Amino acid sequence: MKKPASLPAASVAPAEKDQLHPRNPHRAPYDFPLLSKESPALAPFVRPNPYGSLSIDFADPAAVKALNRALLKHFYGIEHWDIPKGYLCPPIPGRADYVHYLADLLAESNGGVLPPGEEITVLDVGVGANCIYPIIGRRAYGWHFVGSDVDGTAVRAAQQIEAANPGLAGAIEARLQPARTRIFDGLIQSGEVFDLTMCNPPFHASAAAAAAGSQRKTSSLGTGRGARPVLNFGGQNNELWCEGGEAGFIRRMVQESGRRPRTAYWFTSLVSKKETLPGVYRALQTAGATEVKTIEMAQGQKKSRLVAWTFLTPAQREAWRKTRWSTAQ
Which stretches are tagged as biased composition: Low complexity (predicted)? Predict the structure, then answer.
């Protein structure tokens, strides 16, 4: 794959915090006529909404899946994408934002120049059956990915997506994490290093909390009416909740990263709840992180952020850049 162009210094400036990242191709409203023309399977789901604009019923899992297929085809050249029934079908615009902010983080760590795509290796913790982050990262920046998951079905689905699309072939390795309570332990191989790790951790602390969240989402979409909630974006248990919820998962990630400080230049995770941050910062201080960055993100009223940390000293970072990113100079 051709190396992506270097990012000019101006492109790593902070984005407007009520909008998607400046390089995110999903900033404009969905062009449903164009998407339906390119992906006819979307057309039956498109109809005028109460405001007179074309849209889909975002409470309908089939409609959301058809939209994702159309977006992946139009923006990323993905002709073949599918997920098993009931697995997470994520909203693509917000997922793309994480990837673009990670590119900024790399550029900022390299004098404003994004290192060459083929040389950047990223570990996606919890890749899921949808394989969204590796797809976007590969097609936008040419990165190489390892995607981990505790669910064998999800791993096989991600492998099928990689194999079915020539633009992804050989660039994404989906790998099973054999220990459900571990993150890096037992997964990262001896001598293996990553320029970035990324993760969208399970949000809820229990199945009951996940169900309640689904009910709230259903109601906000105008489909509550006392009916059993429909997971329009889907999600298996391990995708939606874990013991300790988001806070507990990220603390475990910090602890495990501290035991292998030279495995990655930047470890990162999304943090959905602002109240999770103080505990994350305490865990990072205890683990001995040498630098921590918090990058705010937003999509309209939805606010989120990513936290990035490294254990490398300035000298180790310089050696990393010279060894792995030298061809970018």
Answer: 1-14
Cβ neighbourhood burial of 307 (10 Å; 0-12, 13-18, 19+): buried
Residue type, position 219, single letter: S
User: Which residue, among 111, 106, 116, 121, has the nearest Cα to 5 in the 3D structure?
Assistant: 116
- Ramachandran class of 210: left when φ > 0, alpha when ψ lies in -120 to 50, beta otherwise: alpha
- The conformation of residue 259, written as its DSSP 8-state character, comes to T
Integer Cα distance of 178 and 79 in angstroms: 31
Q: What pLDDT is recorded for position 298?
A: 86
Q: Delineate the domains of the chain, giving CATH numbers in brackets.
A: 91-328 (3.40.50.150)
- Map residue 223 onto helix, strand or coil: coil
Say how far apart CA 61 and CA 67 lie, in whole Å: 10
55 in Cβ contact with 49 (< 8 Å): yes
Predicted structure pTM score = 0.86
CB atoms within 10 A of CB 35: 22
Q: If we measure between CA atoms, which residue out of 195, 196, 154 comes closest to residue 177?
A: 154
Look-up of token digits 């054999």: 178
Choose between 76 and 230: higher pLDDT.
Answer: 76
Lowest mean pLDDT among 61-65, 167-171, 207-211: 207-211
Choose among 220, 213, 279: nearest CA to 240: 213
The pLDDT score that the predictor gives to residue 327 is 63
Tell whether the model's pLDDT for residue 13 goes beyond 90.
no
What DSSP string describes 33-53?
Answer: HHHHHH-GGGGGG-EE-TTS-
Q: Residue 138's CB: how many other CB atoms inside 10 A? A: 25
Residue 203 has pLDDT above 80, yes or no: no
DSSP one-letter code for 298: E
* pLDDT of residue 208 exceeding 80: no
Instruction: Give the span between the Cα atoms of 43 and 78, in whole angstroms.
Output: 18
250-280 pLDDT, tens per residue? 999 999 999 999 999 999 999 999 999 999 9
Buried-exposed string 67-79: b where 16+ CB fall within 10 A, e elsewhere: bbbbbbbbbbebe
